[in-house]
Structures are given as C-alpha cells and as structure tokens.
Prior knowledge:
This protein is mostly beta strands and 170 residues long. The chain is built from 1 helix and 7 strands, in the order αβββββββ. Helices cover 7% and strands 76% of the residues. It is elongated and about 55 Å long. The termini are far apart.
Amino acid sequence: MKKLAVILTLVLLTGPAFAGAGALKLSLWGRAAVAVPNNIDDVKGLEIGIGSAADTFQGVQFDLLFAQTREDMKGLSHALVTFTDEMTGLQGGFITRSNHLRGVQWGALNLNMGQMSGLQWGLYNQAESVSGLQVGFINYAKYIDGLQIGVLNIAENGWFPAMILVNGRF
C-alpha cells in the first residue's frame, strides 16, 4: 500500500510537467472520469479505471473492463477489451482491436484492421497486413511479410494460402 501511495504522489507532483494533458486519470466508465490536471481526453501518464475512453494517450492505461483510445495510443493498454486506432507499444486483454499497430498485441482474440508491425500472440490473430510474427491457434493475414506459427495459418500471399504449423513470406 505504501508503494502505491508513493507512486500516486509522484504522479500528482509531476502534473505541471505534463501541462495541458492529464497526468493521472481515474475512470469510472467512458468519459465519466477525473484527471489531474483536468483533461480526460488527452492523457500523458497513468490511467486506472473500470472502463475508459480518451482521444490520445501516452503512458500506462489499465482498466478492468474496457479501454478505448480513439486516435493515438503510445505505451501500454490493458483491459478485458481494448480498442485503439493507432497503437505503438503493448496492447493486451481478452479481446484487442486496433487499426494500425506497431508493437505487441496479445489476447485470446486479436484483431488488426490495417497494418500490423510486430507480434500478435493469442488464440486467434487477424490482420490485414502483417510485417512480423503471428503466434496462435489460428492466424489470418491477407498480406504477410513475416511468419505465422500455429495450428492453422492462413495468408493469402503466403507460401500457400493455408498451412498447418508454419506459413509466411519474406
């Protein structure tokens, strides 16, 4: 408990360094939140809650049920369900969804609707375009420049359209 109090105190004291952006955000649900300083839409720092929504985020976002960043997310985002448009960093949860990802996406169901550069790790991984590695039970990519490892691997431009154990293209 002391460690948590020290961390929260340090975050609050660094608030002026993040002028105009929330350094600490506590979220109840969506936009029902408080932030220090008072900016719940553009956060640079730490966000903790049940469910949260922000326009941009840089830092650590940890929510119980859902975490949504409408535009740009840089850092770590983790919740039961996570949604983001542009993601740079680590995105985790039971269900993860992004439009563009540079980094790591892990969960049971990982969906990327555009370009994914990095690693997808889960039971089901899907991306429009992969530059990197997909590891899962089922992996799907329309275009791949990398490797898929799993029970069923589907890559429309892969060595074969569908393969067991390994598929890819370099």
